[in-house]
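Weekly structure sync, notes
Attendees: PL (lead), two postdocs, one rotation student
Agenda item 3: pending single-chain targets
PL asked that the sequence for the first pending target be pasted directly into the notes so everyone works from the same version. It is reproduced below exactly as submitted, 146 residues in total.
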Amino acid sequence: MTPTQIFVEEKLQLLLKRTQSDLTAIGVLDRATRKIHWYSVYGSVSNRTERIRQQINIGLTGEVLRTGRFLQTSAAKHQLFDLGESIMMTEKLLHAAAWPIIFNDLQIYGAILIGKRIEGKYNTEQIEAGTDIVHELSVYCSKYFI
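Predicted structure, written out during the meeting:
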């Protein structure tokens, strides 16, 4: 494992713990295919999750990529398909939140997603902890994803 992979893994595991999530993932935008590729996923119950390629204009992550800001969403079990977020459907997440990955040039390079398999929003402390970790990841990884 490279130092970057180790750093990302440690931060995603910390994010999982601090936000009391069931899943954390970092997705990188592939501008050529206009899809997001899930670079690292923790807490996954499906071996298919890392292979998901999602169009950048669909679902929660699509909205985060378009707006460039933090968002969260909830869904009842029967509404997962309606949201269009592939990772939520595959992992059966009932609540998810995502932050854009923005580097110094102010372009969006991907998204970091957290999710729960139980209903309930993330509270302010969890969102702030997540925002801090996302900032650390963005600063560190800007050298490697650009």
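Discussion points:
- The mean pLDDT is 83.
- Residues 24 and 114 are 4 Å apart (CA to CA).
Action: rotation student to compare against the earlier draft before next sync.
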